[in-house]
Design goal:
This is Methylation protein EvaC. It contains 14 helices and 18 strands. The chain has about 425 residues and is α/β, with parallel strands linked by helices.
Length: about 425
Amino acid sequence: MMSAAAGGTRPTGTCRVCEGTVVEFLDLGRQPLSDRFLSEPDLAGEFFFHLSVGVCEACTMVQLMEEVPREKMFHEDYPYYSSGSSVMQKHFAHTARRFLETELTGPDPFMVEIGSNDGVLLRTIHEAGVRHLGFEPSGKVADVARAGGLRVRGDFFEESTAVEVRAAEGPADVIYAANTICHIPYLKSVFQGVDALLAPDGVFVFEDPYLGDILEKTSFDQIYDEHFFFFTARSVQAMAGRFGFELVDVERLPVHGGEVRYTIARAGARRPAGSVARLIAEEEDRRVASPERLGRFAADVNGIRDDLLALLRRLKAEGKRVVAYGATAKSATVTNFCGIGPELVSWVCDTTPTKQGRLTPGAHIPVRPAEAFSASAADYALLFAWNHADEIMAKEQEFRRAGGRWILYVPRVHVES
């Protein structure tokens, strides 16, 4: 495949939403499963795919050019736990309370969450005594939620499973998803499931990384196997309309490097808020999905790769010790696209026990417990979990006091003392 930066004829595909033509604008090369942390015996059979992203010429939906089978990504040993960040715990508790105050006020309200993970949001719903059900196909994180008394179904959400829930439970007042809908290539079946399960006046609410923020911050590491779609208000409005729904509200969120919460209702059921038209107008002014803007983003991504590699190689030549912080899913894109391995970054620390003692996907950088960081005496720390920078830097003040410096690559490569 040829990247947009290289010029020439660009690869094309078919839009997974409207069946229009998708034109590639960024090629990030050979990539592994972003959450598949390996032991030594696993290395020989590691799965790789080609990671590139394009835009639909018809509906402007930005999406991956190649789909990775969902069973390879979301499985029994899926290692991400939503409760791992105190910031996200507060975010989800606040979100749940808002639903309790606005949408879940009837005599027997019912809420369904798609991709409920370890139950960080449903916990507040459960404590309020509200009927709920989570869909979570990743076994171990689902077990954590069940251990806390939550009702969780170990399936993917799609038309067939939604129909079964409607028959058993009745209609849902709220169907919610956080950092999940963008993962799902088969959105037609999802919307058919929403249609089957949602109450006539109910809402389908989801929040995911916002393409406008990704472009503004050049946060290319938001592009990895699990993130199939990259939404804007305009593309979500078109998608909702195609499936018989209507985008009725949008809200910008600061979490995960910049997200938007989209509220969708049945067509004509609710009057759209002014926020929808305002955000679409802003996107048009900024030409968010235009070939020129996406081409400039691709050039900026290549520049970050070159700058980051140059910095790490210089530090190695100077005899400096560099480690990394946060074995995130998105760090797989950075390490594999840039060609960063243990020869440049000695190891990466992470708080997730199932990642510790293993090797990062593709790049095979050793993962150590978070406790190793304070004792490391590293000169520099490459912050992969940059979206939690404030929380991490406040926690690791001793590193800075000892003379350590943080390396960040969003929105550009820079060093913070």
